[in-house]
Specification:
Layout: H1 5-15, E1 26-30, E2 41-45, H2 46-55, H3 58-63, H4 68-73, H5 75-85
Antiparallel strand pairs: 1-2
Helix pairs in contact: 2-5
């Protein structure tokens, strides 16, 4: 499901978010953070990207949640999707950094 940057730039607005499947504006999201060696980019909505970065550290995204399917299968993400689907299409999830995560940007 993830795609390379050149593919994302061509079709991002048409496909919608690969995580929640909503047809909303998307932007490129490195499934594995660039600072951890990630190269693949997936079209991701603002809400899903914010939730992903609130929930998992860069190390966790590299080691355990390194595919779209693994993120989608996580119970925390499933609970988030149930909430998201009840919201108006124009609403988006926004949060501050998770307090349980380190204050180091690339920990």
């Amino acid at each position: 499901m993830a795609m390379l940057l050149k593919d994302y730039q061509i079709g991002c607005m048409i496909e919608g978010c690969v995580f929640c499947k909503r047809k909303v504006s998307t932007r490129g999201h490195h499934v594995v953070p660039r600072c951890k060696g990630g190269e693949e980019i997936a079209p991701t909505c603002h809400s899903c990207e914010d939730f992903i970065h609130k929930t998992w550290s860069h190390k966790e995204l590299r080691d355990a949640f390194n595919t779209v399917e693994k993120i989608q299968a996580d119970p925390r993400f499933q609970k988030f999707l149930r909430w998201l689907y009840k919201q108006q299409p124009s609403a988006f999830f926004r949060t501050r950094r998770n307090r349980s995560r380190s204050s180091q940007p690339y920990g």
